[in-house]
Write a structure and sequence with these properties.
Layout (H helix, E strand, L loop, with lengths): L4 H10 L14 E3 L6 H11 L2 E4 L6 H4 L7 E6 L2 H11 L5 E4 L13 E7 L6 H7 E12 L5 H8 L9 H10 L3 E14 L2 H10 L13 H14 L2 E13 L7
Helix pairs in contact: 1-8
Length: 254
């Protein structure tokens, strides 16, 4: 007898979802990565920076994986379990981890950083980013694009409006804040979920894909998905990502 629906549900519902490490999904779900290689490009920029700020750092996994951090490195995070993980990873590297509620105003003086970064921010406060950047400084970010993983969202919730998070709107907002957009590109990337436990774990961790998700509330649709995967193979979705790099002009007064 194979693994049952109830076995998969019980296992995934009890797994820890702290931090931003997805290794629990190894062999059970896959996602293509953007061709630009965010971690590599981030590492190059961090190695050349003097003072850097990483906003919404999660558990600090991305920064901790870089070979070199600037002499002054600060990371912000709002969720207490992630704060503890980020501090454990980054403080030994000389970085400072700051609790921040992810709402303006950023708790830093104007023109403090020559590099500000964020990977998959919930929201980008462009005016605040422009304020804390030094003249000539750069904001570098990989963000979630429009209709990301909407095959999953609409499987559970029905048709949705997916027009938000448009790369063009992000570029316009950056320019409205006085920044110059020097790079803007986007891609859609294939995802596969090979069992319903992988989907449960993913939705418990990435909570904005199906707002209000719980095993109890969505058990009927989870069972439908389990039967669909058993009959047809992996559940396929597509994530949407865009890369944006924007520069504060030299000589600009805050």
């Amino acid at each position: 007898m194979g693994v049952t629906f109830d076995d998969l549900v019980q296992e995934a519902a009890g797994a820890s979802v702290d931090g931003w490490d997805f290794s629990w999904l190894d062999g059970r779900a896959t996602e293509e990565r953007p061709s630009w290689g965010y971690a590599r490009l981030l590492g190059e920029r961090m190695a050349a920076a003097r003072a850097a700020l990483d906003i919404q750092t999660g558990g600090g996994e991305v920064l901790a994986g870089l070979a070199k951090l600037p002499p002054v490195t600060v990371a912000t995070e709002s969720w207490p379990p992630n704060l503890a993980l980020a501090a454990a990873r980054l403080r030994p590297r000389g970085a400072r981890v700051v609790a921040d509620d992810e709402e303006p105003r950023l708790p830093f003086r104007s023109a403090t950083f020559d590099l500000v970064t964020s990977r998959h921010p919930v929201r980008t406060w462009w005016q605040e980013i422009a304020r804390v950047l030094r003249p000539g400084g750069t904001y570098f970010s990989q963000q979630v694009g429009p209709r990301s993983v909407f095959e999953v969202t609409e499987f559970f919730l029905g048709p949705q409006d997916g027009s938000a998070r448009d790369p063009g709107k992000a570029g316009a907002a950056a320019e409205a804040a006085g920044l110059e957009v020097v790079d803007l590109r986007s891609e859609r990337l294939r995802m596969e979920f090979r069992d319903v436990g992988a989907m449960i774990y993913f939705l418990r961790k990435v909570i904005w894909i199906v707002p209000g998700f719980s095993v109890e509330r969505h058990r009927d649709r989870l069972r439908d998905m389990h039967e669909l995967i058993e009959a047809e193979g992996p559940f396929v979705a597509h994530s949407s990502r865009f890369l944006i790099e924007a520069r504060r002009p030299d000589g600009q007064v805050a």
